Amino acid sequence: MRTKVGVTGASGQVGSTLVQRLYHEGVNVVAAVRNTLGAALIHASTPGCDIRVGSLTREPDRAHLLDDCDVIINCALASSDGDPRQAYTRNRALVDGLLEAKSLRWLIHFSTIAVYGELIREHRDRPSPDSEYGRSKLYVEQYAIRCARACGLRCSVLRLGHVYGAGIARSREMIELARDPSFRVPYGGRFSSNAIHIDGVASAMLALLGTDGSGEAYYSLAEPRSTWRDVFDWHTGSLGLPPVAAMSDAASDDGRDAYARRSLLRDVSGWVRALPIKQLVRTPAMLDLALRVMVRTPAAVTRRVTDVHRRLAVRNQVALATGARSELLSPIYYSAEMPGPFLGIPDDPASADAARRQELYDWYRRWSTPKIHARPLAPFARRREGERS
Question: Taking a C-beta distance cutoff of 8 angstroms, is the pair 160, 218 a contact?
């Protein structure tokens, strides 16, 4: 393929897989990373690939990092450093910087299923985010489309579903759920999963690059006709675990309604019934309200609030690391299929699925097997050992 394709966020889970697959398929691919650590990761997984380290905006008197790329696949996400207002500013700057590349004619921007909301209902046919993350992602994708058209460039937005596979956080979550004897998959798993294997993302991207980019501006990207039962069974079957049990429709309705009825008022009333205050602070509606306020708050005020937000983020990470889960199952397992149109995913041979299953099994064994490290003997123990000898 003569087209040169730049991939931003190349050291991430999606970006690194895209770079590796495009490179091995003969695409002239350039991996753009922020630092030398990201470059080392790409070099380890895809030796021989063109790797570039630096800023994605044009610096004075210097060429753009991706000036020679005809197509740019944007998998990068500018960080907010705990200040949600910065997410808008920095991602606008990221898009503006990418559009400065001289040879660019087509920008492919990765967005997320979250633009349709945390819980997708059957009647939802257009974006309706109900979280600050979803709102910011919707804003950035609309900004990218608008600015690209103003520059006379093509722009495609891919609203990515739930990615799974070896090394992916979603797969680890599903495996841990499957190992929990009390877990029941809502509605028996017959709802659409809106999920896609990481290799499917790469296959769909290769197919899209084979076109001229004149199709739809927005695509949803998930495996067609794939249910949660299919995805859970793929994981448990690959690892030799028993299939997950089914949750009754009545219990599933209760769980789904709990999310549908979720509001700030209900979170406050729940806190009143069960103190302490940290329960209120951790509720999704309260956190989302705080983020919305911070977006519209002057920077001088948000700097103080950001410290609190960081402490909450650390606390949540500790809870995840220790295996703690929220009382309610994630709303993605209750959601209906996200709207289309969907980007096509070419069929892979059976041998590819067998390789994916083996890869998942090997990865599972690495992180699930207890690690026993030999410890040096304490001074007293060493003295006793000497006496015996």
Answer: no
Domains of the chain: 4-244+337-368 (3.40.50.720), 249-321 (no CATH)
For the whole model, what pTM was predicted?
0.79
Distance CA 291, CA 293 (A): 5
In 3D space, the residue among 127, 213, 207, 196 whose CA is nearest the CA of residue 160 turns out to be: 196
CA dihedral (124, 125, 129, 134) positive or negative: positive
Q: What is the pLDDT along the chain (389 residues), one digit of tens a residue?
A: 578 999 999 999 999 999 999 999 999 999 999 899 999 999 999 999 999 999 888 877 788 999 999 999 999 887 666 677 788 888 999 999 999 999 999 999 999 999 999 899 887 788 999 888 899 999 999 999 999 999 999 999 999 999 999 999 999 999 999 999 999 999 999 999 999 999 999 999 999 999 888 888 999 999 988 999 999 999 999 999 999 999 999 999 998 988 887 765 555 655 555 555 555 556 777 777 777 777 777 776 666 666 665 655 555 554 444 444 435 689 999 999 999 899 999 988 878 899 999 999 999 999 888 766 555 545 544 455 555 55
